[in-house]
Amino acid sequence: MEGDQEAQEAQIREEFDNWIEQKKYLHFRDRSPRIRIGEVWWCSVGYNVGVEINGKGSTYIRPVVIYKVLGRYSFLGIPLTSQPKHGTWYAEFTFKNRAQYAALCSMRAMSKARLFKKYGELSKGDYLGIINALRRLYIDENIELIRTEGAA
User: Fold this and answer.
1) How many whole angstroms separate alpha carbon 52 and alpha carbon 47?
2) The whole model's pTM is what?
3) Which of 73, 81, 118, 133 is placed for a possible disulfide with 91 were both Cys, Cβ 3.0 to 4.6 Å?
4) Residue 43, beta-bridge partner list
5) Alpha-carbon distance 81 to 85, whole Å?
6) What is the tens place of the pLDDT at every residue in 114-131?
7) CATH 2.30.30.110 describes domain 2-149
8) CA–CA separation, 121 vs 46, rounded Å?
9) Contact predicate 26/19, CB 8 Å
10) Spatial distance between the Cα atoms of 6 and 94, rounded to a whole number of angstroms
11) DSSP string covering 82-97, please?
């Protein structure tokens, strides 16, 4: 049991070291592609901590929906997964004839330097579905908490 845990920790440490090398590459990469809301891009989201969503492969990429452009160099992105996820933290839709789940709880500001290649574009209806799911998760649930429990 202890040997298994040590092996797992060693593997995690190696993944972090590999991700740091990829991050160095991304940091000095001169890339700021033109992006628009609703587009899906392959994005180097990294190897992250605990339950945070990770990228895959040597470049630690996964598809990300461009939720909002934050200027010339950054954007708010929502990572996607094809693994079935349910609950208010996820929004399900179909993209390229495959069920996808937007990980709303993992939305974050990212540098455009993390983007690799445009993968496609969401339909207006799917993008609006994600916006509505975000509103329910981050606004409506908090308003309801304040109504029932009061402000802290």
Assistant:
1) 9
2) 0.84
3) 133
4) 62, 115
5) 8
6) 999 999 999 999 999 999
7) yes
8) 22
9) no
10) 40
11) SS---STTEEEEEETT
